[in-house]
Known about the structure:
The protein is α/β, with parallel strands linked by helices. It has a single domain, classed as Rossmann fold. It has 7 helices and 7 strands.
Amino acid sequence: MTGSAANRPAPVAVVTGGARRLGRHLCEVLSSRGYRVVIVFRQSADAADSLVAAIEANGGVARAVQADIGVRADVQRVFDDVAAHEGRVDLLLNNVGNYNPQDVTKLDPAVWDATLATNLSGAYYCCYHALRQMPDGGQIISIGMAGLEGIRANTRGADYYVSKTGLLVLTRALAAGYASRRIRVNMVSPGQLDNSIDLPPPDKIGSEVPLNRAGTMTDISEAVSYLLEASYVTGANIDVAGGYRL
């Protein structure tokens, strides 16, 4: 290792919804790749603290920050804190996502507002602040949902589907807008994961997923890892879904 490489600070990753489930796994993967990880959580303080401890036990660097991503002032506070402690954002991973599926004929406006605030407006707030601390060549990766390339009726979870479709449009707009700075902006879209709340039983999943199995968190992190290295890919949405919603 050259002297300049040895003295170069580790890149900083900010991961929203990072304390549990997929977010936790992605934080661990990013740490293993040499990132200093800022774990943003809303309510799961114990899980966030245990993740910090686990990363540090494996030789990594991490800390946790509490915030409600759907609240603009909370997001600004998080990134002010990052500016004071880490001084930069090399990777923003928009992982947080409200999913409380209701039939569209019974969808409460309060649920609609909460979903859009967190999944779309909150993601934009994070992008807005992260980009002001991001050096040229940085990255934003957002977690979407499979099937966004084809607009279709989805009567269950319409608020979630609308929010993630909007996030794809935002992803592509930012990719084009920040290309001159070599900032790449992409999306990874899972389908039916093995911890999904509406996963079909094993003997039924083949009717929805052509590859006949649920996805795993490793399937998603492999796509994220690909994008981290894919220097000529921006504005892309990668369905990691086994053919779900083709």
